[in-house]
Specification:
Layout lengths: L10 E8 L4 E8 L5 E2 L2 H16 L4 E5 L2 E5 L2 H6 L6 E8 L2 E10 L7 E4 L6 E5 L3 H5 L19
Length: about 150
């Protein structure tokens, strides 16, 4: 595709980051004049990332013994029905860390937990607690596909 500004250069796909916000985006850059443009799909993706960032909340990290604690804003606590003493799953994500509240509780070490998408009602994640202990005497474990399994050590 020719550059609509200089009409000389070729528009090449690029990936870049808006450093102030840490948001990655895709665009096209002219090989001649350096002009950068986005098509509607690229612009929509960038707008969605900014909408998501706008909904994000600042948090405070605090020292708690040898660990670091996170203060969760009250509107998020209420929205996800998080209780003091409740449990969740902490995972690494390509953008940082993700905390997934679960329905399990410390007093029931064998209870599995699930996370349900509030919009669709679909089960999005399942945590099988004490998986190794519960399956150590089994010879075969059969699962129906599609399934995604993530194992982590305690």
């Amino acid at each position: 595709m020719r550059c609509p500004i200089c009409n000389k250069g070729e528009m090449k796909p690029i990936k870049d980051t808006i450093k102030e916000d840490g948001i990655e985006f895709e665009a096209f850059k002219c090989s001649n004049c350096g002009e950068e443009i986005m098509d509607m799909k690229q612009l929509s993706n960038l707008a969605n990332k900014y909408r998501k960032l706008r909904k994000a909340k600042e948090i405070v990290f605090s020292k708690w013994g040898n660990s670091i604690a996170v203060r969760i804003p009250s509107e998020i606590v209420e929205a996800y029905k998080i209780k003091s003493g409740g449990q969740g799953i902490l995972t690494k994500d390509k953008h940082g860390i993700k905390i997934i509240p679960t329905t399990s509780h410390k007093s029931n070490k064998w209870k599995d937990s699930e996370r349900i998408d509030e919009t669709t009602g679909d089960v999005t994640d399942i945590a099988i607690m004490n998986f190794r202990k519960r399956t150590k005497n089994l010879k075969d474990i059969k699962l129906s596909l599609p399934i995604k399994i993530e194992l982590s050590s305690n």
